[in-house]
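Incident log, support desk, overnight shift.

02:14 A customer reports that sequence design results differ from what the structure should imply. Their input is reproduced verbatim below. On-call engineer (initials T.W.) acknowledged and began investigating.
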C-alpha cells in the first residue's frame, strides 16, 4: 500500500474573527468603520480579518452598504470544504501491467503491490483496460493454464473505462466510484494526437483514498 500525506485545510477563526462575526450577525448591515469602533481598533487593523471572513464565506460585503452575516450551517461549510479537495492532491501511484502480461503475472502483481485492481496499459502508460480481483478469479474458473491467458482477454476494456482527471474534485471522483459500483478510477491525462485521443495513466483514486481523507477530516476541529 502506498504511503501518502493528506493535507486538510479547515478554516479556524481567531477570537477576534469570531467576535467580528458576532457583531455583524447582530448588526447587519454594518460598515468596517463601525465594526472597528465597537472593537476599539482601527479600520486598517481589521482589514485582513474582514478579507478572510468574506473570502471564506462567513460575511458578505456590499460596496457602500457594509457587511452582512451569511448564515451557513456547519454542514454547508463542511460540504463546501469537501468539494474543494482535488484529485491531484490525493491520488496515489498507479500499478500497471502490459496487455500481453499473463493472468498469472497479474495475480502475482496484485499480491506484491497489495492492490485490488491493476491498470492495463499499452505504449508504456496509455490506458487500455482495468483488471479487478473478480476478473482474475473468473479467469481461474476454467481449466486453462493461467500463464498462457493474457490479461487483455479478461480485463474491462476501453472505451468502457470510467476515469477521472487531475483537476476533478475528489468528491466527483467518489461519486463515480459509488454510482458505477467500482473500487478504482484511473487518473488520466488526455494526449491528443492527429489521429486519435489517448489517455495517459498518471495516478489512481480508490475507495481507500476516499476513506483515508474521511478519517483525516474526522481529526479536524469544528468549522464554526
Ligand atoms: P471487484 O471485481 O474486486 O469487485 P471492482 O468492483 O473494482 O472490483 O470491479 C468490478 C468490475 O468493474 C470488474 O469487471 C472490473 O474490471 C470493472 N472495473 C473496475 N474499475 C473500473 C473502471 N474504472 N471503469 C470501468 N470498469 C471498471
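02:41 Re-run completed on a clean worker. Output:
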Amino acid at each position: 500500500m502506498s504511503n501518502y500525506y493528506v493535507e486538510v485545510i479547515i478554516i479556524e477563526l481567531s477570537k477576534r474573527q469570531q467576535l467580528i462575526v458576532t457583531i455583524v450577525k447582530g448588526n447587519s448591515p454594518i460598515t468596517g468603520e463601525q465594526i472597528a469602533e465597537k472593537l476599539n481598533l482601527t479600520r486598517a487593523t481589521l482589514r485582513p480579518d474582514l478579507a478572510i471572513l468574506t473570502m471564506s464565506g462567513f460575511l458578505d460585503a456590499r460596496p457602500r452598504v457594509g457587511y452582512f452575516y451569511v448564515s451557513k450551517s456547519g454542514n454547508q461549510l463542511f460540504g463546501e470544504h469537501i468539494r474543494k479537495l482535488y484529485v491531484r492532491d490525493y491520488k496515489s501511484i498507479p500499478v500497471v501491467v502490459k496487455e500481453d502480461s499473463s493472468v498469472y503475472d497479474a495475480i502475482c502483481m496484485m499480491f506484491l503491490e497489495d492492490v485490488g485492481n491493476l491498470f492495463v496499459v499499452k505504449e508504456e502508460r496509455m490506458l487500455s483496460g482495468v483488471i479487478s480481483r473478480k476478473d482474475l478469479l473468473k479467469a481461474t474458473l476454467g481449466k486453462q493454464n493461467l500463464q498462457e491467458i493474457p490479461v487483455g482477454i479478461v480485463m474491462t476494456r476501453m472505451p468502457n473505462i470510467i476515469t477521472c482527471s487531475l483537476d476533478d474534485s475528489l468528491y466527483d471522483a467518489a461519486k463515480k466510484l459509488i454510482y458505477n459500483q467500482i473500487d478504482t478510477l484511473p487518473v488520466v491525462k488526455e494526449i491528443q494526437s492527429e489521429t486519435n485521443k489517448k489517455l495517459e495513466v498518471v495516478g489512481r483514486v480508490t475507495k481507500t483514498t476516499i476513506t483515508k481523507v474521511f478519517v483525516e477530516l474526522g481529526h479536524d476541529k469544528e468549522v464554526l
